[in-house]
Amino acid sequence: MQTFALAAVVNLAGGGAVLLLNSCSTTPGTVMVPLEIPGAHYVGNQVCMDCHAEIVQKFPMSPHARVHFANAAMIGGTGCESCHGPGSKHIESGGAARFIINPDKDPSSCFQCHLDVQAEFNLPQHHPVIEGHMNCGQCHDPHGGDIFKPTGGLAMARQDESCAQCHREQTRPFVFEHQAMREGCVTCHNPHGSINEKMLVESDPNLCLRCHAQIQGPNVPAGSIYIGNTDHTQLLQMGTCWTAGCHTAVHGSNVDPRLRY
User: Which of the two ends of the chain, N or C, has the fewest CB atoms closer than 10 A to its terminal CB?
Assistant: First the structure.
């Protein structure tokens, strides 16, 4: 659903803090507090261009270009400093990294907008972003027109290319491919986090039955589960499709069209 910038400033009585509404596409109407760097003030995007011309030139095409302060005239700028914090001391120091917030090292600025994603990273199974072993920039390009980081070399969707940089064994070509791979990794996995093992969107055979429709064969008792022409009723009682000793090569196989090793 498309969201629109919300131009509003809310003053907290007695506290003096200013909360700003932004136009993040994932969590519409998120209330965020402007980032702070001790002793620094906001300078605006144009000053950033002196050193980061390539990024500033392509940034207007990015979905993140819609993230802005509700009152740019009061704060002093929009865009870059919404995620990196006020830039005056960074500029005065000649670009010292200690005076700028780097979302690749600290995802807290990303989480100000992406509250739903932050919650997913706190689920039992998740990519280790909050532990500091990964960062958002490994999979996403925060400045480019395509939010998924461009790579190359694999004939897969852009989103799956990001997964393939680490999960090469699962995304390599197979003689007998699982056709679900054509639909993308997120067909079966939640890329940020899940309550299920392997970050699966479902933990039982219903995940597979989304695509492998049950076909009722002739003279089959009610309640039986058919996939193709095979009665899977008792097989599914033994466990999931990928743990019952059957279709263990869930991403693809080089030896068996039924996805077995």
Answer: N
Across the beta sheet with 31-32, the strand order is 9-11, 18-21, 31-32
Residue 206 lies in a domain: no
- Contact between 79 and 114 under an 8 Å Cβ cutoff? The reply is no
In a domain, 186, yes or no: no
Q: pTM of the predicted model, to two decimals? A: 0.74
Structure token digits, residue 153: 């070399």
Q: What is the domain range of residue 108?
A: 9-115
As to burial, measured by CB atoms within 10 angstroms (0-12 exposed, 13-18 middle, 19+ buried), residue 137 is middle
Q: For residue 42, what is the DSSP state?
A: -
Residue 85 placed within a domain = yes
Distance CA(242)–CA(244), nearest Å, equals 6
> Can you tell me which residue has the tokens 């079966």?
188
45 in any annotated domain: yes
Predicted confidence band at 60 (pLDDT cuts at 50, 70, 90)?
confident
Beta partners for residue 194, in sequence order: 125
Residue 10 β-bridge partners: 19
Q: At 121, which amino acid appears?
A: F
Number of domains in the chain: 1
Q: Round to whole Å and give the CA distance between 103 and 116.
A: 17
